[in-house]
Amino acid sequence: xxxxxxxxxxxxxxxxxxxxxxxxxxxxxxxxxxxxxxxxxxxxxxxxxxxxxxxxxxxxxxxxxxxxxxxxxxxxxxxxxxxxxxxxxxxxxxxxxxxxxxxxxxxxxxxxxxxxxxxxxxxxxxxxxxxxxxxxxxxxxxxxxxxxxxxxxxxxxxxxxxxxxxxxxxxxxxxxxxxxxxxxxxxxxxxxxxxxxxxxxxxxxxxxxxxxxxxxxxxxxxxxxxxxxxxxxxxxxxxxxxxxxxxxxxxxxxxxxxxxxxxxxxxxxxxxxxxxxxxxxxxxxxxxxxxxxxxxxxxxxxxxxxxxxxxxxxxxxxxxxxxxxxxxxxxxxxxxxxxxxxxxxxxxxxxxxxxxxxxxxxxxxxxxxxxxxxxxxxxxxxxxxxxxxxxxxxxxxxxxxxxxxxxxxxxxxxxxxxxxxxxxxxxxxxxxxxxxxxxxxxxxxxxxxxxxxxxxxxxxxxxxxxxxxxxxxxxxxxxxxxxxxxxxxxxxxxxxxxxxxxx
Length: 503
Known about the structure:
By secondary structure, the chain is α/β, with parallel strands linked by helices. It is built from 14 helices and 14 strands.
C-alpha cells in the first residue's frame, strides 16, 4: 500500500534536548515513543542557519554552497528540485501546515508582486492548507474567536502585569491555545478528510522565540546552574576567541528573544540567562505534548502503521551557551538538531540509534528513494534508507559539514564591520568526533580539539602542536567544498522596498 508521509519540523529545537538521548532534565515522551518505533539519529546536523538557508538544505537536499540561499531573504533558485515537487511527481498533493520561509526566485515575478517583499514565501509544489508566518495573524484571529479579545498583535506573548523583563510568567493563552496546538488541530481536522494516501508537512514555530510558554510548561523546569552552559568564564573571554564571536555577541538584541525587551543580550545576568533556558525547556515539552496528540490522531484514524514520520528541526538554539542566543556562527549549539524517522515498512530497524554523522540534506534524498520519485538535479545528501533497515551503508560521511553566511546584502553592515567583500563573509565547518575545523573565507580559522575540549572553549588553530592537524582538516574541507560558489542569486535580497542587489 502506498504510504502516507508526515514531515514535521519544530523550529530551533536543540539536538541534545531529548530524553531519548539522555538529557538530564528535559522530558520528551512523544519523541521518545517515535524513536522506540523508528530510528534515532544522534549526530544529525543542520546544513546552514538561520531559517531560510537551513530549510533550503532540508527541502532541496543541497548544501548551501549549491542552493545559495545565504540568509533570510535570499531567493531559492527556481531551477532546483525540492521535496514538495518530488512528492507531487510521486502522485501526492503535498500539503503545508505552517511555513517554509522560502523567498521566491524574483526572475519569474513582475516588479510589483508583493511576494518580492518578504522571505516568508511557500516552497514551490506545496498546497497550503494553513499558513502561519511570523506575524501569526491566522493564530491570533483564532484566539480572538476563542474569547481572547486582546489577541490583536504579537503583544499577546507578553505576560500581563508589572514583571521583570525576564520571567517565567504565563501568557494569557493556555496550553490548549498555543500556535503548536492550533496547527495540530488544523492538521487533525484535515486528516479526517483524507480518503487517499497523503503527504503533509507540519512546520511548527516553537520552540523558536519569543521565549514564553503557558502553564504548566512555564515553570516545569528550574533554571539550571552555571555548570550546564558551554561557555567561557565571562563574555569578554568569550569575545576574545575570534573577531566573529566578538561581533556576534555585541550585535545580539534582547527583543529578538523576549518580546518587547530593549537593549542588548549582553546586559542579561547569568540568572536571567538561566531563566530563559528553563523557559526554552518548557517550550520543548509543550511541542512534545502536541506531538503526542498528533500520534494519537494517526492511531485513531487507522493510519499510524502506514505513515512514514520524519521529525526534525531546521536549526538549533544556543540557549545561553557561549553567552549567546539564537542560531548563527559555528558552535554545535546552533546546528546539532534532532532527527527521528519512523517507517513502518522497516520494522527490523525499530529502536535503532545511528551514531554516524547525518545532514539535513539527507532528508530529501531519503524520501525520494522511499517514494521511488528521483530528484531532477544533483543532491548533496545521502539516503538514510539503509539505516532505517538496520544496516550501515557501505560508504558514508565521516564528519558533519555545515555553512554559515553572514553577509548583509541590503545594508552592508557585516561587510563594513569586517572590511570584507560580500563573497568573503562566510564560513564552513568540518566536524568529526575528534576535531572541529572552521574555515572563514576572510577571517582567521579556528580549530577545536573536541576530545580535550568538548565545549569548544579553546581555539588551538595557531598552536604549533596542532598545525599539522589544522592542515589535514583544511585539506579535507577543501576536498569537500568547491573553491568558487555560485553567486547568481546569493547577492540578491528581498526587502520591504523590493529586491536589492549588491556586489
